[in-house]
Recover the amino acids of this structure.
């Protein structure tokens, strides 16, 4: 089998919320095989984050041991995880007709939404940030880690989709709103697109829309998730208008 291309952090185009087995074993390997550059954020805790970082540290140590003292090549911190697949064998001579295939899946990044810092790191991928790096035009400016977001994978278990008020659902809604501002700016025009559009995040899917794929074993999961997003967007918009009206009346 051909080894999937190793994702590059600066080319991240996919964000996965959750680190469930189906997402890790089916969706992400398929995305990587198609050339996508995914980053995975587990919804709570940091076991998957620590697992990937431990593997990354071991990989880095092995590379350092192989380098000579005269090399000037920087060590690349590769992030990956392993997936075991049970393969059925048609052999009748063996008492065990199954074999296990282990694949290494490279990803562009890993994080957790279980802490405030981890959640900030997720939205920092989308929002613009100041940089001291000189831009192509010769002036210091602002940049964002993700310039082209094509897909959001969601694997937050059945419990995560049990309510519109669940934390994973709310995190997804906040992420989508962050993407909206990054792509189109705020409604009042005073938003993330202050540079006339040059710094806007894009989506090069054929229809120009970010694709959201849910892998949870819930009937009608796509429609349910869409319904949740509409509820949150409607409620947030209503609350925003109410706050504006109240403020204006008070003043």
């Amino acid at each position: 089998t051909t080894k999937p291309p190793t994702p590059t952090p600066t080319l991240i185009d996919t964000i996965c919320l959750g680190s469930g087995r189906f997402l890790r074993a089916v969706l992400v390997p398929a995305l990587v095989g198609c050339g996508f550059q995914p980053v995975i954020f587990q919804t709570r805790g940091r076991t998957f984050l620590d697992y990937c970082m431990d593997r990354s540290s071991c990989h880095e140590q092995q590379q350092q041991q192989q380098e000579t003292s005269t090399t000037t090549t920087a060590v690349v911190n590769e992030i990956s995880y392993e997936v075991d697949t049970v393969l059925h064998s048609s052999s009748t001579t063996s008492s065990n007709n199954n074999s296990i295939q282990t694949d290494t899946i490279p990803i562009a990044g890993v994080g957790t939404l279980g802490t405030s810092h981890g959640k900030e790191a997720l939205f920092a991928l989308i929002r613009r940030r100041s940089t001291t790096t000189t831009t192509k035009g010769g002036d210091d400016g602002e940049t964002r880690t993700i310039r082209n977001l094509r897909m959001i994978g969601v694997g937050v278990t059945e419990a995560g989709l049990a309510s519109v008020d669940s934390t994973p659902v709310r995190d997804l809604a906040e992420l989508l709103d962050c993407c909206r501002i990054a792509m189109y700016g705020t409604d009042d025009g005073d938003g993330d697109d202050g540079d006339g559009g040059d710094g806007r995040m894009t989506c090069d899917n054929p229809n120009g829309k970010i694709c959201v794929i849910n892998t949870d074993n819930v009937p009608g999961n796509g429609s349910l998730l869409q319904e949740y997003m509409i509820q949150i967007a409607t409620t947030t918009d209503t609350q925003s208008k109410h706050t504006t009206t109240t403020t204006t009346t008070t003043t």
